[in-house]
């Protein structure tokens, strides 16, 4: 009989472990549940909005310490979990989750039930995953098409980065997912001369943002700056760079923005910059660019946003007019204080009384008049 039983068992198909018992496989929160929360729930229950005071992008929000009685997910108790109840409401119920789009499928709801029944495990790695996914959705990925570097080029670049950092320069990647480099020398001011600018040349294949504002750089660095073929942004405010340098940048096909405030940029340099295929903005207030040169550049390249600060005088004049008008409105009609007639008024102490502005010599007299205007009526000048 024993051999017969063994023979009978041998005829049964051998099933994979998962097929033998689907319930034996524990739900992987990060791989199975978190993507559903991200795709269907975070818009209403995430960093930007928390409808019903419910936030689902980090464990601490779903399971706040000390508020266990208010948890919408009760680990180990799916039938006591309000989140699961709302997932299963009728499509036309005002409390259904998610409120937008189609309800979760029966399979998805069962996945949540199983996850909760198993203890609602939420590992720390899931918090990191949520943060990265939400950040990626908010911040578009920055991409640059950069040329390849051989071993010698990489070695020269690394050495230049070390040398620049040793001098106090800020040298860092533009973003975590790119090899593009941002160099900021502006904090070092006159410690940065043309000699230090020469250190940038090995970075040419990776340098996309450069700030040399307020440094001692001169037109002697024009050749180095012109060699930075991957440059997208150049901040050169309050430097001695002149038209010779800006003219030399006519080969920077990727350049998009130039800040030339307080520099020697003139009409010729602006014309050269405006001809660049990707240049979109130039800030040139207090430079040598004339109104005629700016007009010509704008006419030649309508897409170019050129800021010459030519609106500043108008704004200052308007502000001064507002100040003058306010002073005229607040000017007191009387020269002598109604409470202390022997004293002249101080324009800092005035009130509106009976349709005219009255002045007083001090705050005490002002308060006395406000308390009993009739007492000092004889000292108030007649209306004009």
Q: What features would you describe in this structure?
A:
There is one protein chain. By secondary structure, the protein is α/β, with parallel strands linked by helices. The chain has 3 domains: 121 residues, no CATH class; 160 residues, Alpha-Beta Horseshoe (Leucine-rich repeat, LRR (right-handed beta-alpha superhelix)), CATH 3.80.10; 50 residues, no CATH class. 36% of the residues lie in helices and 10% in strands. The strands form 2 sheets. It has a 7-stranded mixed β-sheet with strand order 1-2-3-4-5-6-7, covered by helices on one side. A two-stranded antiparallel sheet has the order 8-9. α13 links the parallel β6 and β7. α3 runs parallel beside α7 and α12 packs parallel to α13. The termini are far apart. The N terminus is likely disordered.
Short description:
The chain is α/β, with parallel strands linked by helices and 384 residues long. It folds into three domains: 18-138, no CATH class; 151-310, Ribonuclease Inhibitor (Leucine-rich repeat, LRR (right-handed beta-alpha superhelix), Alpha-Beta Horseshoe); 330-379, no CATH class. It starts with a helix and ends in a 13-residue tail after the last helix.
């Amino acid at each position: 009989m024993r051999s017969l039983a063994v023979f009978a068992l041998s005829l049964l198909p051998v099933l994979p472990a998962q097929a033998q018992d689907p319930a034996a496989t524990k739900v992987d929160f990060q791989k199975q549940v978190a993507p559903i929360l991200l795709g269907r729930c975070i818009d209403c229950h995430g960093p930007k909005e928390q409808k019903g005071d419910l936030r689902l992008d980090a464990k601490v929000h779903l399971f706040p310490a000390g508020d266990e009685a208010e948890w919408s997910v009760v680990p180990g108790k799916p039938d006591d979990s309000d989140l699961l109840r709302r997932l299963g409401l009728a499509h036309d119920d005002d409390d259904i989750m998610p409120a937008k789009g189609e309800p979760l499928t029966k399979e998805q709801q069962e996945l949540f039930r199983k996850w909760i029944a198993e203890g609602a495990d939420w590992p720390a790695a899931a918090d990191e995953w949520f943060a990265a996914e939400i950040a990626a959705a908010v911040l578009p990925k920055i991409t640059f098409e950069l040329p390849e570097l051989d071993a010698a080029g990489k070695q020269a670049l690394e050495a230049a980065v070390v040398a620049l950092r040793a001098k106090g320069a800020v040298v860092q990647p533009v973003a975590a997912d790119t090899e593009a480099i941002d160099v900021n020398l502006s904090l070092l001011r006159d410690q940065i001369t043309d000699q230090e600018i020469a250190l940038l040349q090995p970075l040419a294949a990776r340098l996309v943002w450069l700030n040399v504002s307020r440094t001692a750089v001169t037109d002697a660095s024009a050749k180095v700056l012109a060699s930075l073929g991957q440059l997208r942004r150049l901040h050169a405010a309050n430097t001695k760079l002149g038209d010779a340098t800006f003219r030399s940048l006519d080969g920077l096909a990727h350049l998009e923005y130039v800040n030339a405030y307080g520099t020697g940029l003139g009409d010729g340099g602006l014309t050269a910059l405006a001809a660049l295929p990707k240049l979109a903005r130039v800030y040139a207030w207090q430079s040598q660019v004339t109104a005629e040169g700016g007009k010509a550049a704008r006419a030649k390249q309508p897409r170019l946003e050129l800021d010459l600060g030519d609106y500043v005088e108008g704004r200052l004049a308007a502000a001064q007019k507002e100040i003058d008008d306010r002073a005229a409105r607040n000017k007191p009609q009387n020269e002598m204080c109604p409470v202390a007639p022997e004293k002249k008024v101080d324009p800092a102490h005035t009130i509106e009384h009976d349709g005219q502005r009255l002045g007083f010599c001090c705050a005490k007299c002002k308060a006395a008049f406000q308390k009993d205007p009739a007492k000092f009526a004889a000292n108030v000048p007649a209306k004009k």
